[in-house]
Amino acid sequence: MKKTLAVLEGDGIGPEITREGIKVLRTIEKKFDHEFVLEHAPFGAASYFDEGSPFPDKTKAICDHADAIIKGPVGLSVEETDKIPQESRPEVGAILPLRKRYNTSANYRPLRLPKSLASFSPLRDSVVGEGIDILMIRELVGGIYFGKKVEGTVTGMRYASDDCIYTAEQVRAIGKIAFEEAQRQGVRLTNVHKANVLATSRFWNAIIEDMASEYSDGEYVSMIVDNAAFQLVKNPTQFTGVMLLENMQGDILTDQAGGLLGSLGLMPSACIGPEKGYVEPAHGSAPDIAGQNIANPYSMIGSIAFLLDKCLDLKKESDAVWNAMFDILEKGYVTSELAGETTDKTNVLSTSDFGDMVVDILSNS
Ligand code: IPM
Ligand code: MN
């Protein structure tokens, strides 16, 4: 297979973790006889300072032309960010426009915590049980993040509002993806909502529940988001399978999932649209540790695994990458943010050590 991939390294630790992801991708390319043409392009806060835009036209052209996009985390320190006008900050000026441009409505974020890795989690062993394996699917281009935003004054009174809108097409599109994923894996689907308060949630539920009868061979449950947040900590294994969430609720619960894993460094993600998708670690750019070769590249390498599966339909290659990473962690190796007081120092890997180890396992398996 020959594919062109845009590479947006981003800010902070972006370049160093992306380097490890690319190493892994090159190993897969060789081992499975593919050809990946990589085209690097600026994106994020540094891009604003260097190019005058966090998502410059030349980057858009490269992404338009690519089959899929690899994106690093974006954002600089608070002091640097303060120098950027609101509309050009990476969130509003780069990430949301990227999602909109390719209509990447399906965001996959896994909470994969096998029993062997339970020690990383703040949850007790008895709560982790035989392990947690949840795929959160978050709607990514609708809802309150994309609604009209107003900060105004009416008859001397200041106010602000954010519209939250979902169309039936948007709900059906993400519902289809979630039901099909649950069906493919043969697992339960949990639909998360806030229908006791929000009209958008009642609308969402009516459509999703209709679809549940079309996919009636699978197990389906529905849960209010605040209870889901509580249950995720108290009894996470009940969600084993797929969780479906709208944009903002999904933003919050996927970060909570990162907390349950013990590190957002353990959360890759894929954002998939009808024509193309991009992959990105779910965490930020950690400018405080940038350039030190200590960041955990798991989320980026896992994002490469997602790219192989969800963007290029290369499931076998994707599984090989996942297995290599779990192998490393199961052998007791960790990156520095996962190391505890009792961790043997020789088991603590740098960013590049971790990437090298994945490459070694892939090359020798
Ligand atoms: C995420 C991030 C983004 C979001 C921000 C940076 C716009 O928090 O990918 O979860 O809210 O979606
Ligand atoms: Mn978030």
Question: What is the structure about, briefly put?
Answer:
This protein has 13 helices and 14 strands. By secondary structure, it is α/β, with parallel strands linked by helices.
Please supply descriptive tags for the structure shown above.
365 residues; alpha/beta; ten-stranded mixed beta sheet; two-stranded antiparallel sheet; 13 helices; globular; binds 3-isopropylmalic acid; binds manganese (II) ion
Explain this structure.
- Helix 1 (14-32) links the parallel strand 1 and strand 2 (35-40).
- It contains 13 helices and 14 strands.
- With 365 residues, the chain is an alpha/beta fold.
- The model has no long low-confidence stretch (mean pLDDT 96).
- The strands form three sheets. Strands 2-1-3-12-11-4-5-10-8-9 form a ten-stranded mixed beta sheet, sandwiched between helices.
- The chain has helices spanning 14-32, 45-51, 57-65, 78-82, 90-101, 125-128, 168-185, 199-214, 225-234, 247-261, 298-311, 315-330, 351-364, and strands spanning 2-8, 35-40, 68-71, 106-114, 131-139, 149-154, 157-162, 188-193, 220-224, 241-245, 268-272, 277-281, 334-335, 348-349.
- Helix 1 (14-32) crosses helix 11 (298-311), helix 7 (168-185) packs across helix 8 and helix 11 runs antiparallel to helix 12.
- The chain binds 3-isopropylmalic acid (IPM) and manganese (II) ion.
